[in-house]
Amino acid sequence: MTDSSVSGHAPGHVPGSVKIGWIGAGRMGAAMARRLAVAGEDVTVWNRTRAKAEALSDVGCSVADTIADLRGLDVVFTMVSTPADLVQVLTGAGGLLEDPDHVPGAVVDCSTVDDETSVAMRAACAERGVDFLAAPVSGNAKVVKAGKLTLVVSGPEETWLKVAPLLDHLGEGATYVGDGDLARLAKICHNVMLGVVTQCLAEITVLAQKGGMSRAAFLDFLNKSVMGSTFTRYKSPALVHLDYTPTFTPVLLRKDFDLGFGAAHDLDVPMPVAAAAAAAVQASVSSGRVNEDFAILLDLQAHNSGLELKAEDVEVDDGLSSGPERS
Q1: pLDDT digit string (tens) for 222-241?
Q2: pLDDT recorded at residue 3
Q3: What is the value of pTM for the model shown?
Q4: How would you class 207 by CB atoms within 10 Å of its CB: exposed for 0-12, middle for 13-18, buried for 19 or more?
Q5: CA nearest 262: which of 189, 204, 313?
Q6: How many angstroms separate the CA atoms of 37 and 16, rounded?
Q7: CA 189 to chain centre
Q8: Where are the domains positioned within the chain?
Q9: Are 305 and 299 in contact (CB under 8 A)?
Q10: Are the beta carbons of 199 and 297 closer than 8 angstroms?
Q11: Contacts of range 186-190, beta carbons closer than 8 Å, 24 or more positions apart
């Protein structure tokens, strides 16, 4: 394996020299495809709702009438909502792999899917001589726009080396973790930490406020300290303004904890801190607030601490924009 911290693995890459297909132009997919096109890459987009693909024509993306139009391209990215969607666009009727004699060179799946689906799609690709990279992402559409998206990749190393320059356009770059579907495990580990950190952030923020500080002041201090991070900065507006517009729901977070514990069981890894955070996440699901952002962990912590929260009318820098922004 090569040094996974290296980016730009193919210095001879010329933007536009690779024919790229893109399946899925939702908020995330559109933002990612847009970055590739702005970087000068040749991108053809297909989306179930054609208008979403057409919205990318302003940056030079071509629009495919059908998925079949992408079959002869060098690499096709997929960014779809569910495992069922991934199966459909790859192996379903009219899917990318339907004609074994007319297939792309490689498939790079950036969707968040379970390991079982990923293994099945990797096998389907292999049967047709198509390389498959699992490349789940960390971030949302706003993170993509700010150029801070990160990806974790697994699959054939030779394919990774060829695709790495394209992934570099998408944000902070990608990290190669090995063959097979190791990237899926890496993403699950990432999301378990997401829950642990958010629960910890809720606890200390409530503690600080109950001691007499505003949430805005405490979080400003935290974010300027060595303990601050891209994530704590990004989440601060939601915690200050009590804006729980969903980016990731408690139900989805609970699912990732379950997957993490399943992997931990199989690999004999104790996870006591994660188990405590998972109980808090379960409580948020049990409260019935399943359609809000998982930042509602703050509300539950405040309730359990006898503290009534009110939104603070203060501008907060989310770390992704040029200045303070209201969440």
Answers
A1: 999 999 999 999 999 999 99
A2: 35
A3: 0.87
A4: middle
A5: 189
A6: 9
A7: 13
A8: 19-180, 187-304
A9: no
A10: yes
A11: 186/136, 186/152, 186/154, 187/112, 187/136, 187/138, 187/152, 188/256, 188/259, 188/260, 188/263, 189/260, 190/138, 190/152
Q: Which two tokens mark 307?
A: 């503290």
| Residues 135 and 110 sit within 8 Å (Cβ to Cβ) | yes
Tokens of 239: 């915690």
Tokens of 186: 């890496």
Please give the structure tokens belonging to residue 316. Answer: 């907060």
First to last CA, the chain: 42
Query: Residue 262 CA to chain centroid, in angstroms?
Result: 21
Write down the residue that tokens 């053809």 correspond to: 44
Task: For domain 187-304, give the fold.
Answer: N-(1-d-carboxylethyl)-l-norvaline Dehydrogenase; domain 2 (1.10.1040)
Q: Topology of domain 19-180, per CATH?
A: Rossmann fold (3.40.50)
DSSP SS3 for 310: coil
Residue type, position 57, single letter: S
Task: Flag whether pLDDT at 324 surpasses 70.
Answer: no
Nearest to 194 by CA among 146, 144, 232: 232
